[in-house]
Amino acid sequence: MAEAAADWLVDLTGNALAWRRAEEPAAVSVRAPLTGLLLLIYGRRPADDTIFAFAGDAELLEFWLARVLFG
User: DSSP code of 42?
Assistant: First the structure.
């Protein structure tokens, strides 16, 4: 079974965090299987795990992961 690909943009520029499906430039991007991304944002998998491919501002990602709590 082929894995479905999707691009999601998390927008931190407004008064509230917003997200949407989009293929557009971002300050930082993370590519990984969906389960890996979920484990990353829930703090269950470290960002330095080899399943993640990053592009852009790594400090912004670290800042966001340290301050946004899910669950």
Answer: T
CA atoms within 13 A of residue 54's CA, in its CB half-sphere: 15
Owner of token pair 């407004």: 14
What are the structure tokens assigned to 55, written together? 């592009």
pTM for this model (two decimals): 0.74
Backbone torsions φ then ψ of 57, nearest 5 degrees: -80, 90
| Token representation of residue 61 | 């990602």
How many residues are listed for the chain in this entry?
Answer: 71
Per-residue pLDDT tens digits for 21-65: 888 888 999 989 989 988 998 989 999 999 999 999 989 989 888
